[in-house]
Automatic annotation (TrEMBL):
Keyword Zinc: yes
Entry cofactors: Zn(2+)
Name the record gives this protein: 5-methyltetrahydrofolate--homocysteine methyltransferase
Entry note: cofactor: Binds 1 zinc ion per subunit.
GO biological process: methionine biosynthetic process; methylation
Gene3D superfamilies, sorted: Homocysteine-binding-like domain
Organismal lineage: Bacteria, Pseudomonadati, Candidatus Kryptoniota, Candidatus Kryptonium
Annotated Zn(2+) binding sites: 197, 263-264
């Protein structure tokens, strides 16, 4: 996969959690790996059919802080096995590792390595192709997840933090500024670094420009959310519709972002748009070369 990224933009899938929560009343969508694996598998297939090169396991919140009284290793392993079932040739599975919800100042934070270990070992043993540490807002937690992934697996690792624009520039929701966060991500030596979720495609495109100005060697992943949702008639409505994201996706492509996908609120329809625009770039590059 890393070899492929040198010459190709890979399209990632969109949201897993928000899509599954449309179909189920489970508080934690990860539980569906055990209760209704066919629902999760169908979502992976929908994303593959939409043109995703990368599918992401339903394991974002599979950790002992968010989900109690369940074997987290088995839950995470199941998420990887479901993705493997859905996967076809030339596609890749990223094992999702989200934040635990603990703050570095919490007493329980001292257990963080053990918590991530259960999840990451499950993903590894279930057969993922890479570990995706995503939506991180604390540098300390991101580093802990990375440390565990590097020690417990031989897989490539992507680290992605979640930023929003403040009057002091881009910061994570935990208050870490962009430059410090990127420096920490680069220092780790992760194969892929980037940003996900945030405040929708427009703001994430501005962020991607900043990342490109700081990062030169490492592959970059960008997965924007579909914006901040409004609740209308008990439904969450996201402002960034598939029709509205084209110009931002075009910009992400022209910036040289290596992996483009979506986060909360994005759907297979958003991924179809990204696929089409990435293919269009490949076509025009070919025409140029002839
Ligand atoms: Zn998100």
């Amino acid at each position: 996969m890393l070899e492929l990224l040198k010459s190709k933009i890979l399209v990632s899938d969109g949201a897993i959690g928000t899509e599954l929560l449309k179909l189920s009343s489970e508080k934690n969508p990860e539980i569906l790996n055990l209760k209704k694996p066919s629902l999760v598998e169908k979502l992976h297939i929908d994303y593959i059919n939409a043109g995703a090169d990368i599918i992401t396991t339903n394991s974002f919140g599979a950790n002992p802080v968010r989900i109690k009284d369940i074997n987290i290793y088995e839950l995470a392993k199941a998420s990887a096995q479901i993705a493997r079932k859905a996967k076809i040739d030339n596609k890749f599975i990223f094992g999702s590792v989200g934040p635990t919800g603990l703050k570095p100042t919490d007493k329980e934070f001292k257990n963080i390595d053990a918590y991530f270990s259960e999840q990451i070992c499950g993903l590894n043993d279930g057969g993922v192709d890479a570990i995706l540490i995503e939506t991180m807002i604390f540098v300390e937690e991101m580093k802990a997840a990375y440390r565990v992934a590097r020690t417990e697996t031989k897989l490539p690792i992507a680290v992605s933090m979640s930023f929003h624009l403040t009057k002091n520039g881009f910061q994570t929701y935990g208050g870490a500024d962009l430059k410090t966060s990127v420096k920490e991500m680069l220092n780790l030596g992760a194969e892929i670094i980037g940003a996900n979720c945030g405040n929708g495609f427009a703001e994430m495109t501005t962020l991607a420009e900043k990342l490109k100005s700081i990062i030169s060697e490492t592959f970059i992943i960008i997965k924007p959310s579909a914006g901040t949702p409004k609740r209308i008639n008990d439904k969450l409505i996201y402002p960034d519709t598939p029709n509205s994201i084209s110009k931002f996706v075009e910009k992400l492509i022209s910036l040289g972002v290596n992996i483009i996908g979506g986060c909360c609120g994005t759907t297979p329809e958003h991924i179809k748009v990204i696929r089409k625009l990435v293919d269009k770039t490949i076509q025009s590059e070919k025409a140029w070369a002839q």
